[in-house]
Design goal:
The protein has two domains: 2-181 and 364-375, Glycogen Phosphorylase B (Rossmann fold), CATH 3.40.50; 191-362, Rossmann fold (3-Layer(aba) Sandwich). It has helices spanning 15-30, 53-75, 114-119, 131-145, 155-164, 191-200, 223-232, 249-257, 272-281, 296-303, 316-320, 332-344, 346-359, 365-375, and strands spanning 2-6, 34-38, 85-89, 106-110, 149-152, 175-177, 209-214, 239-244, 264-268, 284-287, 308-311, 325-327. It has a six-stranded parallel β-sheet. Helix content is 42%, strand content 14%.
Amino acid sequence: MQIILIGNYPRDKQESMERFARMLSEGFRNVGVKTAIWRPKVFFGAFFQTTSGLGKWVGYIDKWILFPIILSWRLKKKKFNNPGVRFIVCDHSNSPYLKSLPKERAAITCHDALAIRGAFGYADAYCPASPAGVILQKWILRRLQKAGTVITTTQMTVDHLAGLSIGQDIDRRNWHVIPLAFNADFRRIERVEIDRLLAKAGLNSNTSFLLHVGSDLPRKNRKLLIDMVAALGERWDGKVYFAGEALEKELLNHANAIGVGERVCSIVKPTHEILLALYNGCEAFVFPSFSEGFGWPVIEAQACGAPVIASNLAPMPEVSGGAALLADPYSPKDFAEKFLMLHRDVSLREDLIKRGIKNIERFHIDKMMRAYLELQGVKQD
C-alpha cells in the first residue's frame, strides 16, 4: 500500500495544515506504510503575494487550474492507478481536488465547516465571506458532499455538514470522526522551570494570572476576559495575559476606561517554551470563543495541568471532554463566578486538572493514526 497525501499550496503559508500533513506522513511511515505528500506546484504564484489581492487570484491559477491537470496526468501512470494507492486530501478547503482523484480510493479531512457556514450566512460561524468567497465555499461544500470518505475532527463538524446537506442524497455512513492529535509537545513542567521561563519573558512569577491563547479574530471574544476582571473586582487581584497577537488598541482603551488597564498584558507570539510556562503557571486558562473548529488551546492547557474555563458553545464541551468549567461566552459575570469557584475550592481545582490530564489521552498520535489506518483497511495489533 501507498498513501498519497494532498497538501496545501506552499505560497499560502497555511502552517497548521502543513503540520497536519507532515504529522500524517510521519505516522504512516512509522508503521511501515509508504507515503508521499503532493502539493500544488508554484508557477505563476512565484511572482506574487498569494494571500490577498491580485496575487490571490494568480495563486488560484496554480491551485485550481494547473494542479488538477497535474493530478490527472500523474494518475495515468500505472504505479498510481492501482488499488494499492490511496489518497487523503489533508484540508477540506482543497475538496475540489477530489474530482481528479478516484472516489473509491480517496478520503478528505474536514477540520471544520466555519467558512462554509459563514458563506451561507450563519452569523454564529463568525466567518463572513466576500462575494467571491461565497462562490468558493459553496464549491468546496459541493465537492465534500460528493466525497467517498469524509473524516472530521469533531462531531460538531459532522452536525454542521449534515445541516448544510439537508435534502441531499448523501451516505453519512462514510463520514467518520477522528479527533486530532497534538502537533507539538505540551506537558507539565516543574515550578522552578516555570519561574525561570516567566522571568525570561519579563514576567513576575509571583503574579497570579489568567491566560488566553489565540489570535485577535472577533470570534475569540478576548474582550470578555477584560470584562471578567472588572466583574471580579476586589475579589481577585491578579492579571490577564493574552498570548498570541497583541491586544488591539480598542481593547486596551476599553480596559483603561473600566479601570483594569494595568491588569492586562500581551505576550506577543511567545516561543513554545514560554507558552509552556504560561500554560503551566496560570491560575486558570480561559477560552470564551464564540466559534471554533476544534479549540486546540483547550487540550494544550489540560496537558500542562491548567484548569480550564471555556465557552459552553460547541465544540468546547466536546473537546474538553467534561473536564472544563463551561460558561456563557456572552456573560463576563458567569465566567467570573466560575473562576471564583476554582479560586476558592482546592478540591474542585485538583479534580478538574486530574480529569483534564485523563481527557488528553484521546488525542494521542497513536490513536489518530490507528483510526486513519483502519479506514484504509490496515489492521494493527
